[in-house]
Amino acid sequence: MDVSGLVWAGTLVALTAVLLVDLLIIGRRPHEPSVRESSLWVGFYVGLALLFGAGVWLTSGASAAGQFYTGWLTEYSLSVDNLFVFVIIMARFGVPRQYQQKVLLVGIVLALVMRGGFIAAGAALITQFSWVFYIFGAFLIYTAVNLARQGEPDEDEFSENLLIRWSRKALPISKDYDGAKLTTQVAGRRLFTPMLIVMIAIGTTDLIFALDSIPAIFGITQEPYLVFTANVFALMGLRQLYFLLGGLLDRLIYLSYGLAVVLGFIGVKLVLEALADNNLPFINGGEHVGWAPHIPIWLSLLVIIGTLGIATAASLIKSSRDRRRELADARR
Q: Nearest Cα to 222, choosing from 154, 273, 173?
């Protein structure tokens, strides 16, 4: 793709405007959105992503559109996995439901900023050093194995990182929340509220997840414009999706295994691409590896959709059976 500076600027302005509207809505009326409101917003953002992909198809062809849709679906799936941790953080710190929207939106903005930096760094590395695909691929395979072993985290497994523990000790923190404010006045003394700790927890979580998601999407497309827009559209609507899914998150018990398969698949794909473009002297004498196959984007899309579909269906079937069994046991 040959993306001009004008297109980049127009895209950034349009996406920033959408986020600002979202921020103004929350700022004027903090509340817990209804299922209908959340559904409408999620549908709007998904429709916006589909429409954007259609625009990419018309201007740059089916291949570029396929890369965008595959990257967006992968990042969207990984973002849903983020929600499990967000739920744990909200519960651990007792964030009132009506203020959780603001926390989530701040987390999304932080994620966009961090991922933008990672995308720029990743694109520069790939341009200069093709062997970085070996590192990306190995990291994704390692992440996939860990995810398959550990499954989704629960509240008992959540541990505060070093930055959160330092903030608790070093900063004057009030015991209670003061709305969605980060600071409050207590007995004439200015203190930070627990909301600041929540923001730090969300921000550091975003950083950790960015380390997984950016190599994953570079395994699908190396076009920075598509990498960036796929990430933005995946994060948009995540706040409303959090409230829409609600208790359904607990029922997606096999999602982590599905994501592990997806990450492992993309990791293998990256390693194969690195072998096909190999120039490291200690691998095959510095020559390209001819037997390394190229995995087309349509096959990647089918694998990702199929894997996530099977994982979701299996999760809902299993949770439905467990619920029926619990009801039957309760009646005895």
A: 273
DSSP 245-268: HGGGGGG-TTHHHHHHHHHHHHHH
Q: Which residues contact 10 (CB under 8 A, 6 or more apart)?
A: none
Answering whether pTM is above 0.70, one says: yes
- Distance (Å, whole) CA 311 – CA 154: 19
Query: Which residue's entry shows tokens 């541990």?
Result: 159
CB 228 within 8 A of CB 123: no
Q: What token pair was written down for 77?
A: 């799936």
Cβ-based neighbours of 22, under 8 Å, separated by 6 or more:
105, 239
Alpha helices in the chain (DSSP H): 5-28, 35-60, 62-92, 100-128, 132-150, 162-170, 194-218, 224-235, 238-245, 255-276, 297-331
Number of other residues whose CB lies within 10 A of the CB of residue 164? 17
From first CA to last CA, the distance across the chain in angstroms is 64
pLDDT by residue for the chain (332 residues), tens only, comes to 778 889 899 998 998 888 777 767 665 666 677 778 888 888 999 999 999 999 999 999 999 999 999 999 998 888 877 777 787 788 788 888 778 877 877 777 777 888 888 888 888 887 777 778 888 888 889 888 888 887 655 555 556 667 778 887 888 888 888 877 888 888 788 888 888 888 888 877 777 777 778 888 888 888 989 999 998 898 887 878 887 776 666 677 888 888 889 989 998 988 888 887 777 776 767 676 767 787 888 888 899 899 989 988 998 898 888 888 878 777 77
d(CA 263, CA 275): 18
H or E stretch including 190? Answer: strand 189-192
